[in-house]
Amino acid sequence: MTIIITGLILFFAPHAVSIVNEDWRNGVVERIGPGAWKGIYSLVSLVGFVLICWGYGLARQDPIVLYSSPQWMRHLVMLLMLFVFPLFLAANLPGAIKTKSQHPLLAATKIWAFAHLLVNGTLADVLLFGSFLLWAVLDRISMKNRTQRPIASAPPMRYNDVAATIGGLIIYGVFVVWAHQALIGVPLI
Hints:
Layout: H1 2-32, H2 34-61, H3 73-81, H4 84-90, H5 96-101, H6 104-119, H7 123-143, H8 160-184
Helix pairs in contact: 1-2, 1-7, 2-7, 3-6, 4-6, 4-8, 6-7
């Protein structure tokens, strides 16, 4: 568990800086420059992500089960996950989906994490998905009190919502049929 916890700390530390102290973050960026900040942010996050994957894989070999879900819950999760990939794509495709959800990437993260908590009840699962859910909720709340930095995205176009929806559903289908088993080792169908 030490490896996954270390990974979660390293991954979320840079992701939580703006939640905890936006002024400090802005001061550091002014001192070292945006490129250096992004480099450090990315490197620490990447090391954290690798440790999360490694630690989660190790934890799955000797799981500590906290709860079990009924079999029918998997159908609810499959339904919830339908929204994740379109929201994920809508974050960079300005349109009605992005406008209505306000922060589609955070919405996608919350749905993804919550859905996985419904059917994954080991200690490693709760640490992993619970951390992502908690971070997404705290980040969304903090965004109400801080100035939003512009994020590069595709230009607003008439068909961005269609592209996000169709592209997201295609990615969802690939995950259901192949990618979830290939990447995570758990077949969905």
